[in-house]
Design goal:
Aspartate Aminotransferase, domain 2; Aspartate Aminotransferase, domain 1; three-stranded antiparallel sheet; binds pyridoxal-5'-phosphate
């Protein structure tokens, strides 16, 4: 039997599936966005202003939350949300290692300790049973991630939070369209943070949003995101006449610009059309890969809606003579870009050294982290693009099967 070292791709003289490279996460930018950005530039008002207000209103309506505050990233939103719910130095905050760095980095920024609870192997969302085991008297908050667009088990997490007096900040970077048991993501936890980074379901280049139903939190985040200046300080140069602002506390420079909101307004208007297209692609992938040595994402339970943000395959590497990274490289050689979401955070140098984590402390996250591969799922993909992805994945995995 050939060894992993013997794996070679592409085979000499072989033709790749595509000559024109298919990038992972191609943004869906249309004429509306381009015209709105141009109009913003011509208006002379580039910074935080009327377009941010419009985008916040549209997002608030879409999410069903009482308040929506636009910021320059989801990371900024996580930071402010955790301060807003009272996380301070020395507290413990429970989150999942199967996430992007910023979820746990934001906890570290506050001098709090990230305490990881493992993910479920099937859903890749945080396992409420493991959360329960990790609660201590120092625990202040839980930060679940709605992984790939699948809602975490919010009913169970909310019960735990209530029983132990904990706050919930949801990392909904993947989950703008998600619903959990009939409730829209954005309306459940104390704060919910969304991302409009270029690969997300709604984009503004860089950008984020926090939703909450709590007016005090909403007011505080508005002020904290703009240096701690009194409300609506951005209006100070408007034609309503000059008004002094006052500094209430040393806040942060986290405000979104109108230039960013100009893109977001039109992206959000098309959100359901994008979701429908990604759902079609998702179903095509799911049927095309059913017989391959890989796990495909399980469908959400009745009453939930999946945001279809990432189509993740979990390679059955025991049945392959290539590693995940070799499969990724082979797809690259075939002209298909893919992504890794994520190599488990507890195995990254900072977290493993600072907190002494070993890979098997979170066996499910470590297991998923070396098998996971995300395939292109942009609504911009043509049917031909989708078939090329399928052809390339089948070609590589058929050759890699032991
Ligand atoms: C993208 C992402 C973030 C960070 O979002 P930014 O807007 O880039 O700050 C946080 N958490 C998860 C799970 C993400 O995918």
């Amino acid at each position: 039997m050939p060894t992993r070292d013997a794996w070679q791709w592409p085979l000499p003289g072989a033709q790749p599936v595509r000559e024109d490279y298919l990038v992972f996460g191609r943004p869906d930018i249309r004429e509306e966005e381009i015209r709105e950005v141009e109009a913003t530039l011509r208006s002379g008002w580039l910074g935080t202003g009327p377009r941010v207000a419009r985008f916040e209103e549209a997002f608030r309506d879409y999410s069903g939350a009482r308040f929506a505050m636009a910021l320059n990233s989801c990371t900024a939103g996580l930071h402010l949300s955790m301060i807003a719910v009272g996380v301070t130095a020395g507290d413990e905050v429970i989150t999942c290692p199967m996430t992007f760095a910023s979820t746990a980095n934001a906890i570290c920024h506050l001098g709090a300790t990230p305490v990881f609870a493992d993910c479920d192997r099937r859903t890749l969302c945080i396992d409420p049973d493991d959360v329960a085991r990790r609660i201590t008297p120092r625990t202040r908050a839980i930060v679940p991630i709605h992984f790939a667009g699948r809602a975490a088990e919010m009913n169970r997490l909310t019960d735990l939070a209530q029983a132990h007096g904990l706050k919930i900040v949801e990392d909904a970077a993947h989950a703008i369209e998600s619903v959990h048991q009939g409730r829209k993501i954005g309306t459940i936890g104390d704060c919910t943070t969304f991302s409009f980074y270029v690969t997300k379901n709604v984009i503004t280049g860089e950008g984020g949003m926090v939703t909450t139903n709590d007016p005090a939190i909403a007011d505080w985040i508005k002020v904290a995101g703009l240096h701690g200046l009194t409300q609506d300080a951005w209006k100070r140069f408007s034609d309503e006449g000059y008004r002094h602002y006052e500094v209430i506390f040393p806040g942060f420079k986290y405000n979104m610009m109108d230039l960013q909101a100009a893109i977001g307004i039109h992206q959000l208007a098309r959100i359901e059309a994008g979701w429908k297209r990604r759902t079609q692609i998702w179903q095509r992938y799911a049927e095309a890969f059913a017989d391959l040595p890989l796990g495909i994402p399980p469908e959400p339970p009745p009453g939930d809606r999946h945001a279809r943000h990432l189509f993740i395959i979990l390679l059955r590497i025991e049945e392959l003579r290539a590693t995940r990274d070799q499969v990724l490289q082979a797809l690259h050689a075939e002209g298909i870009g893919s992504g890794v979401h994520y190599r488990a955070l507890h195995q990254h140098p900072y977290y493993s050294k600072r907190f002494g984590f070993r890979p098997d402390d979170y066996p499910n996250a470590a297991w998923a982290g070396e098998r996971t591969l995300s395939l292109p799922l942009s609504p911009r993909l043509s049917d031909r693009d989708v078939e090329d992805v399928i052809t390339a994945v089948r070609k590589v995995l058929t050759a890699a099967a032991r």
